[in-house]
Amino acid sequence: MACSSCSTGKDGQPRGCKNNGTCGTDGCNKLTVFDWLSNMSLPNGQKPFDCVEVRFKNSRKEFFKNTENLTLSIGDVVATQAKSGHDVGVVTLTGELVRIQMKRKKVSPDDKTIPKIYRKASQRDIDIWQKCRDREEEIKKRSREIAISLKLQMKLSDVEFQGDGSKATFYYTAEDRVDFRQLIKDMAKAFGIRIEMRQIGYRQEAQRLGGIGSCGRELCCSTWLTDFRSVSTASARYQQLALNPQKLAGQCGKLKCCLNYELDMYLEALKNFPPSDCKLKTQKGIAFCQKADIFKETLWFSYKDEPATWHTLSKDQVLEILERNKKNEKVASLEEYAADNVEEEKTTFENVVGQDSLTRFDRPKNKKRRKKKRRKPKSKASSNAK
């Protein structure tokens, strides 16, 4: 990810502003929203919406009231209300789109518990904020060492400082319940700040850290996906995928979220498709389904006594045979139906002079020239003897 002012370097980090995902232009940030109403003016008499969306480290976003009627735009750094002290974030959305986002996330604009925006961040606020962010990697490494020394079965995945530097939130993953009371005492003594522990799932951990998926693109959860729906192995079965855990699992170790993207289309196509466990009764014997192609509407069947010989049938042919079997009628054989599906391969191009050869532009190999044997010159004595 990169914006116009900070292109990506060889190490994957922004090369220009060095903000690592908190660029002021908001072009290299995760889960960036495009404000397509920014160039439209409000109707006469309508006041602008008084709530804005603010993004903090990685993908954490919250809504805040603009009680001071500040002129805010996307990319502004603001100081916001926190439980104690203040936090610093970047404005990601303003105007009527915030109302739509709040309705989508079931947050009422009239809720009095919505925190407020204090002011636009001053240079002093930004300096303290950047100084705290620079300490995060060092503190994360030190906190992991403390957790290992206490032999706690947990993994500290990320650290997030509050904007004023008074508190740090540690995100961790664990299989079972962990007693980290001693860990909090040791870290508070070592770092001199208030500590908050927050447990997250493995998918939330992948969302915060980011990465590259097996498709070669950035993870969906760290770029645009905001809700995590449950994914089961039934999604892979419906799509006729091999149940290989190594291929179906993502960076988080769970099933890939993209298995649900095309599931509805497969379920719609399978409504009028014969079941995969159907049996066809013929006079030659009972045939079982070996393979099915939903897109081509084709199924392959083989007899019980000849499992290696497959016969290609269309979806309509299979439904016809099943309908006749319900009436206790047996078809003669599958070969009669399969013969209608044989298509002759038409030759559309014939290679006559070899113009489709992939090596026709290669330089011919130089043949090794045979070295001619040089004859030894005759001596004068031999010539005179003659």
From TrEMBL:
Coiled coil: none
Domain of life, per lineage: Bacteria
PROSITE patterns the UniProt entry points to: PSP1_C
Compositional bias of kind Basic residues: 365-379
A Pfam family it matches: PSP1
Residue stretches making up the PSP1 C-terminal domain: 115-200
Renumbered residue ranges of the record's region Disordered: 355-386
GO CC, one annotated term: cytoplasm
NCBIfam families: RicT_YaaT_fam
The protein's name: PSP1 C-terminal domain-containing protein
